[in-house]
Amino acid sequence: MNILDKIVRDKRLEVDLRKSIIPTSQLEASVLFNRKTVSLATKLRNSNSGIIAEHKRRSPSKSIINNNLNVQDVALGYEKAGVCGISVLSDGKYFGGSLDDVLVARAACDLPILRKEFIIDDYQILEAKAYGADVILLIAAILSKAEIKQFSELAKSLTLDVLLEVHNEAELHKSIMPSLDMLGVNNRNLKTFEVSLETSKKLSELIPDEFVKVSESGISSVSAIKELKPYGYEGFLIGENFMKTDNPGKYATEFIQNLES
Asked: What confidence tens digit (pLDDT) does each residue in 84-109 have?
């Protein structure tokens, strides 16, 4: 069983438990449930940098990245830096995150917030909306075509943007459908954790132009973004590069200044 299989197995147990504690009616009664969302896809299309900055405390591949920062400071710092959106990890067991992190980030800034999660149930999409997210992530490697359709259409009905993540050509072919806004290519092989920008380059020509192309993982330098822009990428998800510093907002500011200079 690889790490992805383990995460999904544990996620099913976690979601079943959450459903038994908080009914969907309670999520739908949340103050934030009827909030007007902000489109990350639109922000990326109108941006020069395309940076989606991440809040991530740890990961299965890197262990602890940074446990010393609070979400509010990170979100404020990213907003001042001029990023297009914030990705907030909400998985607890493997990434040290929580839905409360999404809530705190929402209170701290006006940027579009991506709930970064292993979504395997409609319930998690209602949670994302109730906790103030603007975007959900769907991972093709753990979902069938029917599930991608079901989850993305539910998200669109709630005015949430959908970022669909793929790792290879087969995942891309089963995933393309009108209810997606962004197609993300993860440069990290989730089975081996090796990273290569060639994955983004290879898959770029197979992604139709109506979707915003996002490159994820292994983007730690301005040169990597400049290398990928000619392939049509408008979004770049950067996690560990900022989070491993003592001031992610400051480093994001410097990164964007270098990118735009």
From this structure: 999 999 999 999 999 999 999 999 99
Compute the average pLDDT of residues 105-116.
Answer: 98
The answer to whether residues 87 and 52 touch, using CB atoms and an 8 Å cutoff, is: yes
Helix (H) or strand (E) holding 6: helix 3-21
* Rounded Cα distance, 129 and 115, in Å: 9
pLDDT in the model for residue 67: 73
Query: 112: which residues sit within 8 A by CB, 6+ positions away?
Result: 37, 38, 39, 40, 43, 84, 85, 86, 134, 135, 161
**What six digits make up the tokens of 67?**
């446990």
Tokens of 208: 């139709």
Render pLDDT for 187-238 as a digit per residue (tens, 0 to 9).
987 767 789 999 999 999 999 999 999 999 989 999 999 999 999 999 999 9
Report which residue type is found at 73: D
Q: How many CB atoms lie within 10 A of CB 72?
A: 14
Residues with Cβ < 8 Å from 93, sequence gap 6 or more? 7, 10, 14
Separation of alpha carbons 146 and 172, rounded Å: 14
Q: What is the pTM of this model?
A: 0.96
Q: 220 near 49, Cβ under 8 Å?
A: no
Which residues does 15 contact at the CB level (< 8 Å), separation at least 6?
120, 121, 123, 124
